[in-house]
Each structure stands twice: as structure tokens, then as C-alpha cells.
Design goal:
It holds the Pfam family Aldedh. It is an enzyme of class 1 (oxidoreductase). Belongs to the aldehyde dehydrogenase family. The protein is an alpha/beta fold. The protein has two domains: about 5-265, Aldehyde Dehydrogenase, Chain A, domain 1 (3-Layer(aba) Sandwich), CATH 3.40.605.10; about 270-445, Aldehyde Dehydrogenase, Chain A, domain 2 (3-Layer(aba) Sandwich), CATH 3.40.309.10. Helices cover about 40% and strands about 20% of the residues. The protein is built from 14 helices and 28 strands. The strands form eight sheets. Strands 16-19-20-15-14-22-23 form a seven-stranded mixed beta sheet, sandwiched between helices. Strands 11-10-9-12-13-26 form a six-stranded mixed beta sheet, sandwiched between helices. The protein has a four-stranded mixed beta sheet with strand order 1-2-6-5, with helices on one face. The protein is globular, with a radius of gyration of 24 Å. The model has no long low-confidence stretch (mean pLDDT about 95).
Length: about 500
């Protein structure tokens, strides 16, 4: 169970502690933040409501610990990361239980997230040793007008303190995707977990604690974003911010100052279906892409743009599959579980009601009980409906019928988002032309959008983000280039 066994020390009565200077602590505020179970709508957990003064102290510790950590050999950093990965995977059950109860993720998917996170940490350790173990050697005479009098040595050095802010939907995986690159690169790490998902993150951080990382190198601050959010992101000790979430990221980017930013801020991922597509394959991918984890994924299929000539057949195939989706509690591994909060459910309902008022065809009856919304396919959606443009982050999927490929591309590109998209066709030449025309960070051909495998580059255009993720890209973003130039008194050439 969560908070028991090796995790006993992270819990103080009914309230989980925060992590600073290698210790689990209670906040001087004496206050806590409640975490509501999305399925039961009752308080499941409580975490510390940390203060700005505690943030200050953590930042000071992180800055100091980073100086020593940067001098730690790469092999040693990698060794500790491998150890943390093993501990995380060995203790997947209590962490998965936390995911089930605080974000209503199906039990099997929760276990998968923890195991995947352990694999990501280990892969990052290996990749970091390779990337950071190499430098460049440049010779001055390769540039016109120069003799060989200068040897230029370049290497990658850490930025300093990295602030990591993961989202609720993958709190463990998207936390370690920031933590592991930061640590292997020689940075210290301050984690601000989402409220929904905080307890899962605290358990994960304890695995790093048990692995034996130096005190102060890793910290986990919990609390209300309204009280410590801006204070964290604008703190002068922060040298890099890696954020995954929504519109808040745009606000952070405007306030952060001259530091590297890595941000993924959501998407309205379009699925363009051509007339020659394998419609059974399309239907399966629409179900997987649009409804897994109740559609609460940045890379979920958010709008289907299908050629009119095959639209009726595709809609019938998708309807048949929607009817087979199970709806209920996450403990029972149902396909559709409660969305994360009442406010989220209300927002989704608002999009549905707008579509209803404007004449969309409901392929299923709209049904909601609390935060649980039954899967819904909306056909004959038009561009004047909110659902055609806004990101529902729930199990509701709009279908727009198009008369040409250009119409589909134009709809995709008119969005303020540009995370991912997909195109289904048997003609690879058409697929490549459409991929080039789509203004998104990634285009999947004959498969639903997806973040991963975790070493693949992952990035968004427009309001979908800044910078690129993936193991290699994250390590590179969390380092900077250091150059040393050796100046020779006379030109020197190796004669072989």
C-alpha cells in the first residue's frame, strides 16, 4: 500500500511530507493541500502546503549541492540512476496504487507507467554517458585566412538548477523524463509535482533518496500553485524550467527571463483519413488514440478529418468499437474512468452542449455521473463548434467531414496548437506530402499520435510548446557548451 513499507517515512499521520536536503519534512505552514479521488470525489490524500521561505531554502541547497554533483564522475551519476530505476520498478505496486487513486488511471496502465519510467531512467543514464563523454576538437585552419595555430576543445557542462513541473496525467513518467536528464548532465533538480499526482511523485522521489543521491541535489516541493507557483518559476536560482501542462506554460515563458525553457502545452491532434485508408486500422487507432486514459493525453486524437466518401463507413466502425469500451472504476481496469476533476468534467460538458445546440450528430447518448463521462463520438461537426478547435481532454471525439485533403490540412494548420497529427493512407507519397504540409511537431503515418518511445524527439509548434523532449534532446537542453582554446606560438601540422 501507498505510504507503507519502505515508504513509511514519507508520511506524517495523514499528510505526506515534502523532500528537501535528503530528508522528509513537514511544512512550517502547518497547512496541507487535499487531493481528491476523481472517482469517489472524496479526499484521498493530503500533502504539505510549502511556503515561499521553504522554497528559498530548497533553492539554496540545490545550488550548493549542484557544485559538488558536477564534479561527480559520469559513471557514478549513471550508477546511481540505474539504482534508482531498479528501486522504482521493484516498488511499482504502491506507486501504481497512488496513480489509481489520485488521477483515476486504470490499474494496468498505472503499473505500465511506473515500469516505463524505470526504463526511461536507465536509458537516460546510458545515453548520458555516451553524449556527455564526448567532446569536439576543432582546428583553426579550416576557416579561411587562418593557420593551424588554435586548437578548440568543446564539452557540455551543466546549467545549474533545473525546475521540473510535470502534469497530472503522467506524473511519474513525465517527472522522470525531466529528472533523469537533469541529473546525468550534472544539474540539481527541484520538482514541483501537480496536486493530482503529487503522492505518486513523492513515492518516486523516495526511490531516488534510497538510491543514495547526495543531500540537497533533489528536492520535491508540494503546495498550492497560487502561493508558490510564480515564486518557483521566477526564482533567481533557477537556471532551466522543464514544464508539461496547459496555458500556465505560456504565462511561465513570459516571466521566466533568460533561461532555457522546455515546454509541452497540449494539442488538438488531427487525424486525417484519406479515401484509400485501411478503415479497420483507422478505427482501431481512433479508439486507442482518442479514448485511452479517457482522452486525457496531450497526444490523444482530438479531431478526425475524414474524406466524405468514406466517412459513413468509418463512423460505423468506430461506433461499434466505442460500444465495446468498458466504463467504471480504475481499480477494475475499465477503459473509461473518471476525468481528473469536476471542473474538467464541466468543461467537457460545455463543449458537448455547444455541439448539440449547433446540430452535431450524437453517435451515442451523452451520459455523465459525477466526473465519469461515457465515451462519445460526435459526427457532422462543423468549424463553428467549439469542439472543432478546443482541447476537451476527455472521452469526447469530434468528426469533421472534408471534401479534399487541402481542407483537412487547412483545418489542422488553422489551430493555435501544433503538437502532433496523423494521416492514414496506403500511398506513402501522399502521406509524406501531407506530413510536410502539417504544422505540427510530429506526424504519425498510419498510427495514432503518441509520445514515445521515450527516446524519440517530442516537440510542439505554435502554442504547443518550446524546445524538444526525448532523452537526447533533454540532455542537450539541460547543458551548455564550454569552449577552451589552446593558442600555439607557431602553426603546427601533423605530418602523418
Amino acid at each position: 500500500m501507498a505510504g507503507t513499507g519502505i515508504f513509511t517515512e514519507i508520511l506524517d499521520g495523514e499528510v505526506y511530507k515534502f523532500y528537501a536536503d535528503g530528508e522528509w519534512r513537514t511544512s512550517s505552514s502547518g497547512k496541507s493541500v487535499a487531493i481528491v479521488n476523481p472517482a469517489t470525489r472524496k479526499t484521498q490524500y493530503k500533502v504539505q502546503a510549502c511556503t515561499q521561505e521553504e522554497v528559498n531554502k530548497v533553492m539554496g541547497m540545490a545550488k550548493s549541492a549542484q557544485k559538488s554533483w558536477a564534479k561527480t564522475p559520469l559513471w557514478k551519476r549513471a550508477e546511481l540512476l540505474h539504482k534508482a530505476a531498479a528501486i522504482l520498478k521493484d516498488n511499482k505496486a504502491p506507486i501504481a496504487e497512488s496513480l489509481v487513486k489520485e488521477i483515476a488511471k486504470p490499474a494496468k496502465d498505472s503499473v505500465t507507467e511506473v515500469v516505463r519510467s524505470g526504463d526511461l531512467i536507465s536509458y537516460c543514464a546510458e545515453e548520458g554517458v555516451r553524449i556527455l563523454g564526448e567532446g569536439k576538437f576543432l582546428l583553426s585552419d579550416s576557416f579561411p585566412g587562418n593557420e593551424r595555430t588554435k586548437y578548440c576543445l568543446t564539452s557540455k557542462i551543466p546549467l545549474g538548477v533545473v525546475l521540473a513541473i510535470p502534469p497530472f496525467n503522467y506524473p511519474v513518467n513525465l517527472a522522470v523524463s525531466k529528472i533523469a536528464p537533469a541529473l546525468i548532465a550534472g544539474n540539481s533538480l527541484v520538482l514541483k509535482p501537480p496536486t493530482q499526482g503529487a503522492v505518486s511523485c513523492l513515492h518516486m522521489v523516495h526511490c531516488f533518496h534510497l538510491a543514495g543521491f547526495p543531500k540537497g541535489l533533489i528536492s520535491c516541493i508540494t503546495g498550492k500553485g497560487s502561493e508558490i507557483g510564480d515564486f518557483l518559476t521566477m526564482h533567481p536560482a533557477v537556471n532551466c524550467i522543464s514544464f508539461t501542462g496547459g496555458d500556465t506554460g505560456i504565462s511561465i515563458s513570459k516571466k521566466a527571463g533568460m533561461i532555457p525553457l522546455q515546454m509541452e502545452l497540449g494539442g488538438k491532434d488531427a487525424c486525417i483519413v484519406l479515401e484509400d485508408a485501411d478503415l479497420d486500422l483507422v478505427a482501431s487507432n481512433i479508439i486507442k488514440g482518442g479514448f485511452s486514459y479517457s482522452g486525457q493525453r496531450c497526444t490523444a486524437v482530438k479531431v478526425v478529418l475524414v474524406m466524405e466518401s468514406v466517412a459513413d463507413e468509418l463512423v460505423e466502425k468506430v461506433k461499434a468499437k466505442v460500444a465495446k469500451l468498458t466504463v467504471g472504476p480504475p481499480e477494475e481496469n475499465c477503459d473509461i474512468t473518471a476525468v481528473v476533476s469536476e471542473s474538467s468534467a464541466n468543461f467537457i460538458e460545455g463543449l458537448v452542449m455547444d455541439a448539440k445546440e449547433k446540430g452535431a450528430t450524437f453517435c451515442q447518448e451523452y451520459k455523465r455521473e459525477g466526473n465519469l463521462i461515457w465515451p462519445l463520438l460526435l459526427d457532422n461537426v462543423r468549424p463553428d463548434m467549439r469542439i472543432a478547435w478546443e482541447e476537451p481532454f476527455g472521452p469526447v471525439l469530434p468528426v469533421l467531414r472534408i471534401s479534399s485533403v487541402d481542407e483537412g490540412i487547412n483545418h489542422c494548420n488553422a489551430s493555435n496548437f501544433g503538437l502532433q497529427g496523423c494521416v492514414f493512407t496506403k500511398d506513402i507519397n501522399k502521406a509524406m506530402l501531407i506530413s510536410d504540409a502539417m504544422e505540427t511537431g510530429t506526424v504519425q503515418i498510419n498510427s495514432a499520435p503518441a509520445r514515445g518511445p521515450d527516446h524519440f524527439p517530442f516537440q510542439g509548434l505554435k502554442d504547443s510548446g518550446i524546445g524538444s523532449q526525448g532523452v537526447t534532446n533533454s540532455i542537450n537542453l539541460m547543458t551548455k557548451v564550454k569552449t577552451t582554446v589552446i593558442n600555439l606560438p607557431t602553426p603546427s601540422y601533423s605530418m602523418g
